[in-house]
Amino acid sequence: MGPLLALASAVFYGIADVAGGLLSRRANAVVVAMAGQLGGLVFTLVAAPFVSTGTPDAADLAWGALSGVGTGVGMVFLYRGMARGAMSLVVPVSALNGLALPVLAGVVLLGDRPSVLAWLGVATVLPALWLVSRDSSPDGTVTRAATADALMAGAGIGLQYFALAQAEAGAGLWPVVAGRCAAALVILPMMRDGWRMPIRLVPWAALTGGLAALALVCFMVAARTELVSVVVVLSSLYPAIPVLLGVVLLRERLSLAQSAGLAGVGTAVVLLTMG
pTM to 2 decimals? Predict the structure, then answer.
């Protein structure tokens, strides 16, 4: 069940990223991120009393809040990067950076010992995501600004995953609630230009945040039954969704290298699920 939940997290996150990236091309990326976190907060506040059976302690809420700091930073830079560059490139680059931190922390700090098949899956994911992130433009370049945004987003996403995985099972969804509050507080000072978004886009941005919150819920439950390093890798396969939808919806051309990378992503799913 753990690997399936981690994959569900990847699907929900991938769809949320596509929607957020498209919205960020029509409105300020910071405002889109804020609306998303508020939508996620409403979703988790409604769901938490029905899902949670225990009372979270201060440590669980602190881990959730730290995860939210990563979420706030990650979403702002991710949406801004997608507004500047192709989502089929920016999202995988952010995933590469976001994958390294929690996996390394899980092995070094938490004593995770993945199986041989799981290690093969991890080893496959890294070059696969690198291939997926290869620029398909004629000159083979990606704008420096979009790449910098993607790297910053990856650092935030890595912190988000690692911190949330430390919350105890008895805390239920309350760490995710704490994370949405912390994310909104992190984003708030960045809104120097105020709330600049057409009213008709607000519900869609909020729905995007709800999907992202659902992805985190799936991740958190999966992390309680599987090794953190394995769950993080499976959840980090979400870049395949923006790449595919970018090609279908936005007519972004998929290069041979990116096609090979997607094949590698599929192989990694099989290895990690079997491991």
Answer: 0.78
